[in-house]
Amino acid sequence: MSPLTSETPLLDTINAPADLRALEREQLPQVADELRACLLDSVAKTGGHLSSNLGTVELTIALHYVFNTPEDRLVWDVGHQTYGHKILTGRRAGMARLRMQDGISGFPRRSESEYDTFGVGHSSTSISAALGMAVAAQAKGEDRAVVAIIGDGAMSAGQAFEALNNAGAMDANLLVILNDNDMSISQPVGALNKYLARLLSGRTYNAARRASEKVLSGMPSMLEFANKVEEHVKGMITPGTMFEELGFNYIGPIDGHDLNALIPTLQNLKKLKGPQFLHVITRKGQGYKLAENDPILYHGVGKFDTQNGIASGKAAGKLTYTQVFSDWLCDMAAADKRLVGITPAMREGSGLVRFAAEYPERYFDVGIAEQHALTFAGGLACEGIKPVVAIYSTFLQRAYDQLIHDIALQNLPVMLAIDRGGLVGADGGTHNGAFDLSFLTCLPNMVVMAPADEAECRLMLTTAYHVDGPTAVRYPRGSGIGTVPATTLESLPIGKGEIKRHGRKVAILAFGSLVAPALQAAEALDATVANMRFIKPIDHALIRELASSHDLLISVEENTLIGGAGAEVARSLEEQSLNVRLVRLGLPDVFIDHGDAPSLLAEHGLDAHGIEASIRKALSV
After folding, report:
1. pLDDT band at 318, cuts 50/70/90?
2. Phi and psi (nearest 5°) for 479?
3. CB 141 within 8 A of CB 176
4. Could you give the dihedral angle defined by the CA atoms of residues 66, 67, 69 and 71, in that order, rounded to the nearest 10 degrees?
5. Is 209 helix (H, G, I), strand (E, B) or coil?
6. Distinct helix (H) and strand (E) counts, the chain
7. Is-catalytic flag, 398?
8. Which position among 86, 194, 284, 474 bears the catalytic label?
9. pLDDT tens column, 13-48
10. Structural contact between residues 342 and 371, judged by C-beta atoms closer than 8 angstroms
11. CA–CA distance from 586 to each of 438, 480, 512, 533, 589 (Å)?
12. Distance (Å, rounded) from C-alpha 67 to C-alpha 146?
């Protein structure tokens, strides 16, 4: 069956995993073809993550076929490979509004389905969560399987190995499945590996091993010799010695697209006790040639035509903030040989593709290891190198201790280029950059700024680079108002804002992305607008000037109100004993769901109309 077929007779009968388990095993390859076709058709209409989901079709089917979900727990890592899981667990109709406002999430979410056992969006959390569930089941005397499914990219993060280290020393019944979709650990597999996987996962082999251990237990030297022989024999034919050393029974690698290999192996593993580790090889984009040939391009997609695919050329339109950073980084690298660029596995998303090509010896992708990225940057800074860490706001959260302890405390000149500040849209609560102004501003030694437009972004990047201490430039996803940055490398005065519009009675103190809607609102109100530029150090003199000449101050920011830029304005007023009314506008104290970002901002009163309405309400009080 072609993966582009629109006919899905078997899939149409599956409304829950129990329906899948009622099928004959010989029918499952057809289910895989239909599920892959359904995924391709659905994501082409809505956008979303494609290549990773196409690569986990057979694995998803095998898991729900073998395990008694939801009683048995499946814990997915990262979560952007669970669309097939959602379809098989009764959410096929919901795929029409995937990642849209009031639609289903693009990630597992506990409130959405009993089959989503743990909410995810960031990487490398599955083993820890699954171990917790396995230990809880053991403590309550409940007999259930717990399975963590983790991708090889996620295995580069320290938390995954912390969890493996802990799990291997316990007797909890936990199965970890490494979905190796880049063949980064082993060579492509064949019939021999498939045979070994079945053999090593079988109860006969394991029973024989336990029996021999008992016989040899009275002969320590022989037992030690036998263990070494087994270790070296398995090490010669499988890449699992490391996982065995951590206390896991390693199985694999096996072909993750071969249901005849997956299902009997999982059935065998389900019967075994203690920590088990299964290594499967899959291919991102499997079954759709365009995605197979360019899995990066088809990783996260917008709407596209499945026959013609995605145009890989640079799309025409406004310059994005990410592109502004990309161009600046290369220009600054040409001007200063001390500059290095660091990314935690986000080269494309953070705009380092060009830099990596032009300055490969100064480009460092450290993998999904945000904590390491920051401390690594700190070590470089200690030796006179000028590190620029390109990172999403949501992923910077993972390295907060390193930011505090290893960088800010030592006042090291590490520059953070923080992409995706504010609401990001379809990826929702797990990826919104709603907290960075709050958690950055409270740190001593930090300089924190947010540009009003693309041209100002370049100015701020240069400004931050020249500060002899930790700095952060925080900018939103996508484009701004369309200003064209200069080609020079000029700086701004530290801690100084500017008045963009002079008005009466009301002064709007706007930060970053909300300067533009504040200016629109001000036109209807004849209000003053200040582009504050810096959250820290905040412009105390400008605040004093505005407080002394206006009846009402309004702060606006695309960040949680608690501890954000508006809180800094309030602190400045208090410290200067300035008696003027302040109304703070920003994101509420909730996790904001997925949806269209402009619509979400409007819903929370942070578009021009909402800002105007809030000011009129404040004036009427």
Report:
1. confident
2. -100, 165
3. no
4. 150
5. helix
6. 26, 19
7. yes
8. 284
9. 999 999 999 999 999 999 999 999 999 999 999 999
10. no
11. 12, 18, 12, 16, 9
12. 9
CATH 2.30.30.60, domain 66-78+122-282, yes or no: no
- Angle at CA 568, nearest 5°, toward 562 and 574? 110
Which of 34, 370, 454, 612 is catalytic? The answer is 370
Asked whether 310 and 56 are in contact (CB, 8 A), the reply is no
CA 133/CA 118 separation, integer angstroms: 10
Token pair of 314 as six digits: 């640079």
CA distance 61 to 14: 11
Query: What's the rounded mean pLDDT across residues 409-413?
Result: 98
Output the CA angle 232-236-242, nearest 5 degrees.
70
- Using CA atoms of 438, 439, 440, 442 in order, give the dihedral in degrees to the nearest 10: 80
pTM > 0.70: yes or no: yes
Residue 4 predicted with pLDDT over 60: no
- Dihedral of alpha carbons 488, 348, 116, 251, sign: negative
Helix locations, 365-414, DSSP H: 370-382, 393-396, 400-401
Contact criterion met (CB below 8 Å) for 408 and 358: no
For the purposes of burial, counting CB atoms within 10 Å of the CB of 257, is it exposed (0-12), middle (13-18) or buried (19 or more)? Answer: buried
99 is an active site residue: no
Q: Taking a C-beta distance cutoff of 8 angstroms, is the pair 240, 250 a contact?
A: yes
Local structure of 534: helix, strand or coil:
strand
Q: How far is CA 382 from the centre of its chain?
A: 29
Give the three-state DSSP class for 431: coil
State mean pLDDT over 285-306.
89
231 CA to centre of own chain: 36
pLDDT at 157: 84
Distances (CA, A) of 8 to 36, 75, 90, 97: 10, 27, 15, 20
∠ Cα 206 210 214 (to 5°): 170
Percent of the chain's residues with pLDDT above 90: 78
Q: Which residue out of 398, 458, 477, 536 is catalytically annotated? A: 398
Cis peptide bond prior to 493, omega within 30° of 0: no
For the cut 60, the answer to whether the pLDDT of residue 195 exceeds it is no
The CA distance from 118 to 111, in Å, is 10
Q: Tell me: pLDDT of 149 over 80.
A: yes
Rounded to whole angstroms, the maximal C-alpha distance in the chain is 92
Encoded tokens for 254: 């096996």
* Matching fold, domains 66-78+122-282 and 498-620: yes
Report the distance separating Cα 411 and Cα 406, nearest Å. Answer: 9
CATH of domain 498-620: 3.40.50.920
Any idea which residue has 């091993």 for tokens? 209
Residue 619: phi and psi, rounded to 5, are -70, -25
pLDDT at residue 606 tops 90: yes
- Class of 321-474 in CATH: alpha beta
How many CA atoms lie within 13 Å of 43's alpha carbon, on the beta-carbon side?
A: 32
CA 90 from centre of chain: 25
Q: Where are the domains of the chain?
A: 66-78+122-282, 321-474, 498-620
Closest to 416 (Cα-Cα) out of 442, 378, 379 = 378
Q: Nearest-CA neighbor of 263 among 201, 171, 190, 329? A: 201
Residues 6+ apart with CB under 8 A from 487: 331
Amino acid type, 85 = H
Q: What is the mean pLDDT of the chain?
A: 90
Q: Quick count: other Cβ atoms within 10 Å of Cβ 574?
A: 10
370 flagged as catalytic? yes
